[in-house]
């Protein structure tokens, strides 16, 4: 009798006895069956807690067992036991993996994309199990949904490639300038100073870039572990500190910063981080605005949300770029960003800081009409007093 037959046959047929006149052998049989059933239930419970899909399929392609994860993954509501697995699992690749596992003694390991019931990437390991010479083989298929980890891996390698590219540009400029100075054929002091200025500017860019990459990594770690070091603090004070941070930059471009702050508002926040985010917004407003223009910073309570807005009279931003500028290294005009000393990470950092505080980062803008960059915080994160 095969393993599958054992699983499919009702227990009364496996052991012939009359429950009304139990002999001691029958009693032993009954208690053994109960024991086995209990063991089976325990095993099923354990397998149901596993975060991987597990299906055993007989040589006749029928499902012998399936855990809760696999059932939910393939949206199986009816009892699938004893039914062809291709009735429920609509994937040609999974069927081929099953066939391959059935033919070989080795473990079969594949990464595949499935589209049914939704688009996912699965790592599937399959083994052929044969309990005895006479029994027909059974395939155990174990699968893991690696869609998110693959996305993350791709995202990380893109990020590393971007950072390397960004580092290479200033390093090449510095190297070029040093080689020119080293060659000793500079005509005068003015040309020497020009090259020293290049080294100075590009090293500052390198430092800013590394500093921003490290900050982003730190903020993301805080986000992952939900470890915000928050205290109830005044929001207007935080904004005033940000304005002080950019005073020199504003003066260089003769930009006036006006503030309209509701001084009563406070928030449960990491003031250092929030100050950094607001400083970034105001810095951008100054960097991208024409000289002698005006930047306005507002703090208000609107419809149960707190708005921190930085409004400028700069070039404005087309709709198609508005969401993307919060992505790492996304710039509308690369040349312009480099010219004003940008790293392409400022807004990504602001977005993460806003999210860490339960809020979001937004922009309202129209080309030629300036921009309003906002941090919106939910009022349940805040007390006004
Ligand atoms: P960067 O260091 O390049 O400024 P950010 O992440 O701070 O990087 O900003 C991303 C891009 O968004 C910038 O390169 C710029 O194109 C655009 N941007 C940011 N702030 C403004 C603004 N106030 N006005 C117009 N464009 C802006």
Write a concise synopsis of the structure shown.
Helices cover 48% and strands 22% of the residues.
How are the secondary structure elements laid out?
Blueprint: H1 3-8, H2 11-14, H3 24-49, E1 53-58, E2 63-66, H4 68-73, H5 92-103, E3 108-114, E4 120-129, E5 138-145, H6 147-183, H7 189-225, E6 231-234, H8 235-245, H9 247-252, E7 256-261, E8 265-269, H10 271-288, E9 294-302, E10 305-312, H11 319-322, H12 334-339, H13 346-356, E11 360-365, E12 371-378, E13 382-384
Parallel strand pairs: 7-9
Antiparallel strand pairs: 1-2, 1-5, 3-4, 4-5, 6-8, 8-13, 9-10, 10-12, 11-12
Helix pairs in contact: 6-7, 7-13, 8-10, 10-13
Bound molecules: adenosine-5'-diphosphate.
Key phrases:
13 strands, Helix Hairpins, 4 domains, alpha+beta, Beta-Lactamase, 385 residues, binds adenosine-5'-diphosphate, elongated, 5-stranded antiparallel sheet, disordered N terminus
Q: What portion of residues belong to β-strands?
A: 15-25%
Based on Cα principal axes, name the global outline: elongated
Averaging pLDDT over every residue, what do you get? 89
**DSSP summary, beta strand count:** 13
């Amino acid at each position: 009798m095969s393993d599958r037959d054992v699983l499919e046959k009702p227990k009364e047929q496996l052991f012939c006895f009359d429950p009304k006149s139990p002999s001691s052998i029958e009693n032993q049989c009954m208690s053994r069956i109960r024991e086995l059933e209990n063991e089976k239930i325990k095993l099923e419970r354990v397998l149901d807690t596993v975060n991987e899909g597990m299906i055993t399929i007989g040589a006749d392609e029928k499902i012998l067992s399936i855990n809760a994860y696999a059932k939910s993954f393939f949206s199986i509501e009816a009892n699938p036991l004893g039914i062809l697995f291709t009735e429920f699992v609509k994937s040609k690749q999974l069927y081929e993996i099953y066939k391959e596992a059935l033919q070989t003694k080795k473990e079969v390991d594949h990464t595949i994309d499935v589209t049914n019931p939704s688009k996912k990437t699965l790592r599937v390991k399959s083994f052929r199990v044969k309990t005895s010479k006479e029994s027909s083989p059974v395939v155990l298929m174990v699968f893991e949904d690696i869609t998110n980890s693959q996305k993350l891996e791709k995202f990380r390698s893109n990020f590393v490639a971007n950072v390397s590219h960004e580092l290479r540009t200033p390093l090449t400029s510095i190297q070029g300038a040093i080689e020119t100075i080293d060659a000793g054929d500079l005509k005068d002091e003015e040309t020497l100073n020009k090259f020293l200025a290049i080294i100075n500017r590009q090293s500052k860019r390198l430092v800013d870039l590394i500093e921003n990459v490290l900050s982003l990594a730190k903020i993301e770690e805080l986000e992952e572990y939900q470890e915000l070091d928050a205290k109830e603090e005044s929001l207007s004070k935080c904004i005033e500190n940000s304005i002080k941070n950019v005073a020199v930059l504003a003066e260089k471009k003769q930009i006036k910063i006006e503030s309209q702050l509701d001084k009563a508002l406070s928030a449960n926040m990491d003031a250092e981080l929030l100050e950094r985010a607001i400083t970034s917004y105001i810095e951008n407003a100054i960097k991208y605005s024409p000289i002698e223009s005006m930047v306005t910073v507002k703090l208000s309570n609107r419809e149960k949300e707190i708005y921190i807005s930085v409004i400028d009279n700069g070039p404005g931003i087309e709709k198609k770029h508005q969401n993307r500028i919060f992505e790492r290294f996304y710039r509308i005009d690369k040349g312009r960003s480099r010219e004003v000393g940008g790293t392409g990470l400022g807004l990504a950092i602001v977005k993460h800081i806003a999210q860490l505080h339960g809020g979001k980062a937004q922009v309202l803008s129209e080309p030629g009409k300036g921009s309003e960059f906002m941090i919106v915080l939910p009022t349940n994160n805040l007390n006004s007093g």
